[in-house]
Write a structure and sequence with these properties.
By secondary structure, the protein is of the alpha/beta class. 48% of the residues lie in helices and 20% in strands. Helix 14 (385-410) packs antiparallel against helix 15.
Length: 746
């Protein structure tokens, strides 16, 4: 036993001699290395952004491209009609491209269904045709077969796509497989796999010289950086459109897939060894979007191009028309047509300008990270933080320079983000470990002040003490007011027990305050039973309107739960139950926010017309029979995320300009429910009649709204509106009715 104690004492002294900070740094390094091995989304995304930055600094130079994109653009659609075109028209386009001497034609479109304009299909759809007309149509050439004949006489590669739905099992017996050989084993386990295929119709598939996949799978942030050259679809190895187009143009029968134990290493075609990642994806070195790659399909159809323009070139038929939704984000462009991505991949292959990230690079990056981090851990206590920071800056600069050289000269992608983040994290841990006690003391101060101010404001003031001066800034805020209906009556019931009223208010205001704080709000003030709060100050909140509405709904829910408790308590004690009925008003607009008051006492508050309107909207909840009313600016910002309904256009007291007001009725689940969507439709029809002065129709439609309102969300509101409209029927409004109602009270 004594020997064990001595051993533990020796180990503890060894730990202390090495240093707790160093041990923590080693632990942090081990954890970060483990994270890198797992390679979660954020780590991968940071690495990809570095590679994007390199391409943006030095994009691939545009060259005279061996690929011409035959663009089904807006002008072509205007000239020949909306897509899809009749197959006879597409066949004519393919025939003219082939006649111009194109080496091969790739179709970045899919013909998955039969042409409905074929004579036989037309005869089938029109039942009133005469027998002779029907016979003539049935005997006319089929458009799909005409196009197949044109394809068979040309070197055409048809595009195909993957399907996510594994239950869709198309017949692939009519789709000829692409020949391939593998060197190093079976590539299937490493290929991107998809359960099903969307092919072209069989008559076209059999006529084509090749077929390639159009699938372009973006990275985790939705940006296209690499495309799979080969993939596994329905247990069949399928080439990409770019790869099979090159195969057909070169006259080869198949492709060679090279792999080792780590996965795919390259694809070989016509003597070109194309390096890929382990999943057979090609890193594309992009050049900026270039209109010179494109020629309008309209110009080819009309014969307005040089006869030799396409001679010897690969033609890709695709679309840049925005209405056909084939645009993707790349490191250089926010939206690049998918057909141009295929074209750039072909350019990369033919010019040897592709990017590459060998499998051993990741191991080298991790090893370099470990070596540099351990050097920092060892040297920090000896040299001090400033010297180590200087050495670290030199090493980091050298690493960045080496990474840039590998990209610029060797076209190899080397990540510097993870080594930099890891080593800098280790440095920060060691540099600031000695300030731990000071941080604890500051935290105690923050905790003390947080009892009086919102945590966000405490942090803001801790970072910027100069903010403790009078004045403010102009800023868009979302402002919330809440108030209790009939609070005077409730107060009178506690005339003999004022402490009971205090307990009730604390019990009531605590969950409401928590709802505001939980949604990142700042509580401005309590005014007896009323609460004022705002969002987007002191800290920026891009979704301030949404957070204000979420807080308002939660406040109403907490009030409902409190009323249930109070009713049960009153029943147990044989007391009178007086429910708390809360109204909420929310408005968004420009305000002045800052420290308001005198030189000796001031509060962080907000002022402005938008604040006053929020207060007026809260007051209108009494008249309109709804619990929460929001202004039009707020409604614009939260539309689609909450269940809101336009309920009136009013001129509130103190304002000349009328405002449109909306009832806030529920969250997103309610907003997308079938019942609420039906209510919106009926409600809008009723309001349209009301605002155009067609009060009789408004009354009829109001009754429809009552029936549609299954959850009785607007029962009190419809009662109020019915009384108002009936009054207008008997005594029409004076002057020209514009749908604006003048509020008689605040």
């Amino acid at each position: 036993m004594l020997g064990t104690i001595h051993s533990l004492s020796f180990i503890w002294k060894l730990v202390l001699s090495f240093g707790v900070a160093r041990l923590l740094a080693v632990g942090l390094l081990s954890f970060l290395i483990f994270v890198r091995v797992l390679d979660p989304g954020p780590v991968e995304l940071l690495r990809l952004k570095v590679f994007d930055f390199y391409q943006q600094l030095k994009p691939r130079l545009s060259i005279e491209s061996p690929v011409v994109i035959v663009d089904i653009d807006e002008a072509s659609l205007t000239e020949y009609g909306q897509w899809p075109w009749p197959r006879t028209l597409v066949a004519d386009l393919v025939s003219k491209i082939s006649a111009s001497g194109s080496a091969a034609i790739g179709m970045d479109v899919i013909f998955a269904e039969h042409d409905r304009t074929s004579p036989a299909h037309v005869a089938e759809r029109y039942v009133k045709l005469s027998p002779s007309a029907r016979a003539e149509l049935n005997g006319a050439p089929d458009h799909d077969e005409l196009m197949a004949d044109v394809i068979a006489r040309s070197r055409v590669v048809l595009g195909e796509s993957t399907l996510i739905d594994a239950e869709v099992t198309p017949d692939l017996s009519e789709v000829p497989p692409t020949s391939y050989a593998s060197l190093g084993g079976d590539p299937s386990p490493f290929l991107l796999s998809f359960p099903s295929l969307l092919p072209n119709i069989p008559v076209l598939e059999k006529a084509a010289a090749g077929r390639g996949m159009l699938t372009i799978k973006p990275d985790i942030d939705g940006i296209i950086r690499r495309i799979p050259l080969v993939m596994l679809v329905s247990e069949r190895v399928m080439p990409a459109l770019a790869l099979d187009l090159l195969r057909v143009a070169s006259g080869k029968n198949g492709i060679l897939i090279k792999l080792d134990q780590s996965g795919i290493t390259s694809i070989v075609l016509s003597g070109i060894d194309i390096p890929t990642d382990r999943h057979a994806r090609l890193w594309i070195y992009f050049s900026p979007h270039d209109s010179e790659r494109y020629i309008s399909a309209k110009d080819i159809m009309s014969g307005r191009i040089d006869q030799n323009y396409l001679a010897g070139k690969l033609a890709l038929v695709g679309t840049s028309a925005s209405g056909l939704f084939d645009n993707h984000a790349t490191p250089l462009e926010a939206a690049m047509p998918g057909v141009e991505i295929h074209a750039q991949a072909i350019e990369n292959i033919l010019t040897g300008s592709f990017l590459h990230q060998p499998y051993f690079i990741a191991g080298s990056e991790i090893l370099a990270t470990i070596v540099v981090s351990l050097a920092i851990i060892i040297l920090m206590p000896v040299l001090g933080p400033l010297m180590v920071l200087g050495l670290g800056a030199f090493v980091s600069s050298s690493a960045v320079a080496a990474s840039w050289y590998m990209f610029d000269v060797e076209r190899i992608l080397v990540d510097v983000s993870f080594p930099f983040v890891t080593t800098f994290s280790v440095f920060l841990l060691l540099a600031f470990f000695n300030y731990y006690r000071d941080a604890q003391q500051k935290q105690q101060v923050r905790d003390a002040f947080s009892q009086y101010l919102s945590p966000a404001l405490v942090e803001e003031l801790a970072d910027n003490p100069e903010r403790l001066t009078l004045g403010g800034q102009s800023k868009e805020l979302s402002v919330l007011f809440s108030d209790v209906r009939g609070f005077t009556t409730i107060s009178e019931s506690f005339s003999v027990d004022p402490q009971g009223l205090t307990r009730l208010m604390n019990r009531f205001l605590t969950p409401l305050s928590n709802a505001i704080i939980d949604e990142k709000g700042t509580i401005d003030k309590y005014m007896g039973d009323a609460v004022m709060a705002f969002w987007n100050a002191p800290l920026d909140d891009l979704e301030h309107a949404e957070h204000a509405c979420a807080a308002g709904l939660e406040m109403l829910e907490q009030t409902r739960l409190l009323n249930i408790e109070m009713r049960e308590q009153a029943e147990r004690n044989n007391e009178i139950y007086r429910p708390l009925i809360v109204g909420v008003g929310i408005n968004t607009g420009e305000c002045v926010v800052g420290n308001m008051g005198s030189e000796i006492r001031f509060d962080y508050s907000a002022l402005g017309d938008a604040v006053n309107l929020a207060s007026r909207l809260e007051g209108q909840t009494k008249d309109y029979g709804v619990r929460a009313i929001i202004g039009s600016n707020t409604a614009d910002q939260v539309s689609g995320r909450f269940a809101i309904l336009d309920i009136d256009i009013i001129r509130v007291k103190g304002k000349e300009e009328p405002v449109k007001i909306f009832a806030l009725l529920g969250d997103h689940d309610l907003a997308i429910s079938d019942a609420f969507i039906q209510l919106i439709k009926s409600h809008h029809v009723m309001l349209e009649h009301y605002r155009t002065g067609n009060f009789s129709c408004a009354l009829r439609n109001l009754q429809i709204c009552r029936k549609v309102d299954e959850l009785q969300l607007l029962a009190d509101y419809y009662d109020m509106l019915q009384v108002r409209i009936e009054g207008f029927v008997e005594n029409p409004p004076m002057g020209e009715w514009n749908g604006v109602f003048i509020a008689l009270r605040k």
